[in-house]
Amino acid sequence: SGQSLPNLRITIAGGTDLVRKDTLYSDAEGYYLLVVPAHDSYQVHVQASGFNLYSDRIVLGQSVRDADTLHHLIKLERIGPEDTLTTKPIVLHNVLFELNSYRLKSESYNELDALVVLMKDHPEYSLAIHGHTDHTGEPQANLILSRQRALSIYNYLISRQVESSRLSYEGFGDSKPISDNQTESGRLSNRRVEFVLVKKIK
Questions:
Q1: CA of residue 74 relative to chain centroid, distance
Q2: Which residues pair with 192 in a beta bridge?
Q3: Average per-residue pLDDT in the chain?
Q4: What pLDDT does residue 1 have?
């Protein structure tokens, strides 16, 4: 395409174990190659200068493989200039909570630390944290739980020296589904935490 490709800062974890943290450079055709130990699933966080954080969870049985090679398409969202009001919501696929709880699971910290790096790299932006649930249970209880989960992330980021003045949090309960609540996979998608970069309040 003739376009220059970004150097990627990538973090891969299997469960709570950090598998690889490195900077990748593409080949002449624009592909990146990374060798990692075998795991059933991986947390993947990708960052590049001028782009939003990329978050994904790769389960080997659900991915396209060629022998021992896993092909995974990564689409980065470019961060606009400072006068851009918002970016689209990014789901934190590897931020997990105990069942019906706002207590963070330990495997969430790798991804949240990548979010800390994003905030340090882009001091011109603030961060809005949004909590969501599926439709199981009472709507008011879901609203409270979603807000508590967003607050847990807010508190973690503050503990990692992100200024509270650059953070906000909100819970939406089950009011903003992104998938069908009639299936378990759909409910899993709806139980999520997202973040949105917003223009920093002066």
A1: 13
A2: 132
A3: 85
A4: 37
DSSP label at 114? H
Give 87: exposed, middle or buried? Use CB within 10 Å, 0-12, 13-18, 19+: middle
Cross-strand bridge partners of residue 7: none
For the sheet with 17-24, list strands across it.
17-24, 8-14, 41-47, 54-59
Q: What is the DSSP string of 139-195?
A: HHHHHHHHHHHHHHHHHHHHHTT--GGGEEEEE-TTSS-SS-TTSHHHHHHHSEEEE
Single-letter amino acid code for the residue at 116: V
Confidence (pTM): 0.82
Q: Which two tokens stand for residue 80?
A: 């606009």
**How far is the C-alpha of 52 from the C-alpha of 45, rounded, in Å?**
11
The 10s digit of each residue's pLDDT in 64-122 is: 555 567 777 888 888 876 555 567 899 999 999 998 899 999 989 989 999 999 999 88
Residue 118 host element (H or E): helix 109-121
Whole-number Å distance between alpha carbons of 60 and 71: 10
Whole-Å CA distances, 36 to 41, 58, 59:
11, 13, 14
Which amino acid does the sequence have at 144?
I
